[in-house]
Amino acid sequence: MVNIHFQKIALNLFTYKFVRDVAFSSPLFHNRTMTKAEKARIVTRILNLEYPDRKPLLHYSNPFELLIAVILSAQTTDAGVNKVTPELFRRYPTPEVLARAEQNHVEEIIHPTGFFRMKAANIIKTAAALAERGEGTEVPGTMKELTALPGVGRKTANVILYHIFDQPAIIVDTHFKRVTKRLGFTRLTEPEKIEKQLSRAIPKEIQSDFSMTVNLHGRKYCFARKPDCAGCPLKELCPSAV
Ligand code: SF4
Question: Which of 57, 61, 198, 229 is 20 to 30 A from residue 176's alpha carbon, by CA?
Answer without folding.
Answer: 61
